From TrEMBL:
<feature type="domain" description="Plastocyanin-like">
    <location>
        <begin position="494"/>
        <end position="603"/>
    </location>
</feature>
<dbReference type="Pfam" id="PF07732">
    <property type="entry name" value="Cu-oxidase_3"/>
</dbReference>
<keyword id="KW-0964">Secreted</keyword>
<dbReference type="InterPro" id="IPR011707">
    <property type="entry name" value="Cu-oxidase-like_N"/>
</dbReference>
<keyword id="KW-0325">Glycoprotein</keyword>
<dbReference type="InterPro" id="IPR008972">
    <property type="entry name" value="Cupredoxin"/>
</dbReference>
<comment type="similarity">
    <text>Belongs to the multicopper oxidase family.</text>
</comment>
<keyword id="KW-0732">Signal</keyword>
<keyword id="KW-0479">Metal-binding</keyword>
<feature type="domain" description="Plastocyanin-like">
    <location>
        <begin position="39"/>
        <end position="94"/>
    </location>
</feature>
<dbReference type="Pfam" id="PF07731">
    <property type="entry name" value="Cu-oxidase_2"/>
</dbReference>
<dbReference type="InterPro" id="IPR034285">
    <property type="entry name" value="CuRO_2_LCC"/>
</dbReference>
<dbReference type="InterPro" id="IPR017761">
    <property type="entry name" value="Laccase"/>
</dbReference>
<comment type="function">
    <text>Lignin degradation and detoxification of lignin-derived products.</text>
</comment>
<dbReference type="InterPro" id="IPR045087">
    <property type="entry name" value="Cu-oxidase_fam"/>
</dbReference>
<dbReference type="InterPro" id="IPR011706">
    <property type="entry name" value="Cu-oxidase_C"/>
</dbReference>
<dbReference type="InterPro" id="IPR001117">
    <property type="entry name" value="Cu-oxidase_2nd"/>
</dbReference>
Amino acid sequence: MEISKKSLNLELLVFLLFNVFIVSCMAKKNITVLNWVLEEKNFTRLCETKSILTMNGMFPGPTLYAYKGQRIKVNVVNQGSYNVTIHWESEKIQGGVEGKEGGLWNFWLVDRKTDRKGKEEMEGFPSLFTNQSVQPWAESWMSGCMRESTTRARTKERDLSVARARGHGVKQPRNPWSDGPEYVTQCPIKPGANFTYEIILSTEEGTLWWHAHSDWTRATVHGAIVVYPKNGTNYPFTKPDGEFPIVLASWFKGDIPAIVDDALRDGTEFNISDAFTFNGQPGDRYNCSKDADDMFNITFDYGKTYLLRVINAIMNEEMFFMVANHTFTLVGTDGAYTKPLVTDYVLISPGQTMDLLITANQTPSYYYMAARPIEGVVYNNSTTSAFVKYSGNYTVPSSPSFPDLPYYNDTDAADTFVDGIRSLASEEHPVDVPQTVDTQMYIVISMNSNPCAVGNCSTRLASSMNNISFRAPTTDILQAYYKEIEGIYTTDFPDTPSLYYNFTGDNFTENIVTSTLGARVKVLEYNTTVELVIQGTNVLSGAENHPTHLHGFSFYFVGSGYGNFDNETGPQSYNLVDPPEVNTVGVPKNGWAAVRFRADNPGCGSCTVIWKGMLAGHGHGVHRQEWSNQRNEYAAGSSSTESLLIFSEANLVEESMDVA
């Protein structure tokens, strides 16, 4: 029987559509959708009860579990009193309600679709999620996200802190729209609204974290991200018998938004925390915190090996961490594997994560684990503690062994540990350190002062990079770049400081102490290799450590030193063979740190310096030529407090990605 050409074409079309449907279904099977709720809850610590902003009513918030290569959508519903965003990168923007009078942002709900797949049906995750509910699928987009005023809207006679959460260390390839910094990549979520973030876990493997990213909301809104090896692959070390996420955080007796507002109004230092915590508990080294319920604890079985996933979510302090009578093997930092490093202690900066193997090889008993800071100009010199308990029958000692932590000013211990960290650099986990660089930037970070616009002060503290402090624009920078809106930012962030002086000296003139304000950015061509030398200073507030984090990229920490960086001798000490691949680095007190990376992730990112709980930074990203029509009406808005931004430029094309 003769078959017509038209019939063949129709059959071919049906065949192709069927295969597209199958591929689409296979792709969606690898997307997990969760529902999280921002809400205020009462917590009692140090004998005082206070209301704090939380995720899912938890402090710390829920742990996000995933496999390498997975996509996760997290719908965040804001039932709190603050405008909030969560930092990781999102592709489609969920929900939003039209802004009410006095609000900072306007949202328009455009569309909503649902997919009621139950949690038990999500392939590969039958029991990994705790305190997390599955989100009905919802996709929409927003437009018109702009600040109505540069002045904060007041609700209940107090300033509204703008919060956002981010996946700290999640690279989010070609997905800058949900990175989190307000006025940089997205709009905050108004109370009563919701927002769906898409998290793309591309090459990360190990421990990361998520957190709110505005003012000090991250003090209580944060949690762990655990990324397991891709299905069918293994750890580069013997699989542990168990694991424990451990989040170090700060606790303030006072109301956190009020602490920020008072400091901004009066131009003074921000209050230091009243305690540090292990997974939300201060431990018995603090007064009024000595009951068993005030102690976080984990249980070991003798002879087994465990993986401690340690996260420093503390506002400012770098911390020494130990477990009494036990030894660690460091195997990963910031979602990347390292060569095994055997050590009795670790030093972990704010924003960093570390994966530590520990073997239960001691006499069954109770053992303290503890953490305390290395010194800064203003810091909380206290110790937080928790228990490691062995299973079995034994008499609990009245005074369990306590670790001999390095002293608060033991810089030798700090340097010894940091210098020992190396990338794994194996065939399965290679490194790609730029041996030469196209762009070199020398960035001086300092604490400066600016005139007070309002309030009871003549000047206020303002952190800066190359003597420029970030001024939040009226429209977010990513939207301004995409829509070619003029007057929002300038592309003249300097590669070097405008004035050279003895950065680590003691005497400074007025033009050094006072910074300028602006939203100034650096444009980088796609695939450019970049070296950042970050120089600490002694301006105004004195010398201290400066943890520095890069959004959208990991970088190679190639070198550091004390004093002022020397362009001749400094690079001679670089490790260009197996430097650690990290997303956060601690710039040493009165010193410098050098990092290298390749600008191959189009988008708008930011590089933030964590300083007294504030964020000072510069970002990079934004590549645009072909964009999804779904983003044509996208409007973003977010900014880091006291930050500068760097952009990189290339094509950002909406495309399907192989993340299976």
